[in-house]
Amino acid sequence: MTNPKTVRIVAVVLIAMLVITLAASLFGCAPAKTSTPSVDPVSGLRYVAVADLPKEAQDTLKLIDKGGPYPYNRDGVVFGNREKILPKQNNGYYHEYTVKTPGERDRGARRIVTGKSDERYYTDDHYASFRRIAEDNG
User: Fold this and answer.
1) Sheet harboring 77-79: ordered strands across?
2) Most buried residue, 6, 54, 90, 104, by most Cβ within 10 Å?
3) For residue 28, what pLDDT is reported?
4) By 3-state DSSP, what share of the chain in percent is helix, strand and coil, each rounded to 5?
5) Region of residue 108 (left: phi > 0; alpha: psi -120 to 50; beta: else)
6) Which residues are catalytic?
7) What is the pLDDT of residue 29?
């Protein structure tokens, strides 16, 4: 036989749990949204965190921050933005740096492009697409 008092207690507990769950979802106990937008409003490109870049790209960023020395003689040359994917700027605004690609005998397809306003972009397909590197170091 089932005790009516026990049934009422279980029902009250279940209803209380449902009310608490509903209140939590309605009043902001859901996961917080990130304050960093997923798309750069200037370029329209998706952001990528430094921590999400390949290790070689992170190493290249460190070299850029130190001012070199760079492993390739083309590192630091002016990037012309002929593909017109990055925001339009005067010639000389952007510079490119090679990101080593394991197994490649030449420079490979990966690059970091920097702008004079300290913005940084990553491409892993030789300028066919870019992602804006998040400034908070990911």
Assistant:
1) 47-48, 131-133, 120-123, 111-115, 94-98, 77-79
2) 54
3) 60
4) 30, 15, 55
5) left
6) 96, 126
7) 55
Which residues neighbour 67 within 8 Å (Cβ) at sequence distance 6 or greater?
A: none
Tokens 């197994």 — which residue? 103
pLDDT tens, residue order, the chain (138 aa): 578 888 788 878 878 777 787 767 666 655 555 555 699 999 999 999 999 999 999 999 999 999 999 999 999 999 999 999 999 999 999 999 999 999 988 999 999 999 999 999 999 999 999 999 997 544
**What size, in residues, is the chain?**
138
Q: What is the DSSP string of 27-51?
A: TT-SPPPPSS-SB-TTT-PBEE-GG
Q: Under CATH, what is the fold of the domain 47-133?
A: Nuclear Transport Factor 2; Chain: A, (3.10.450)
Contact 125, 109 (CB under 8 A): yes
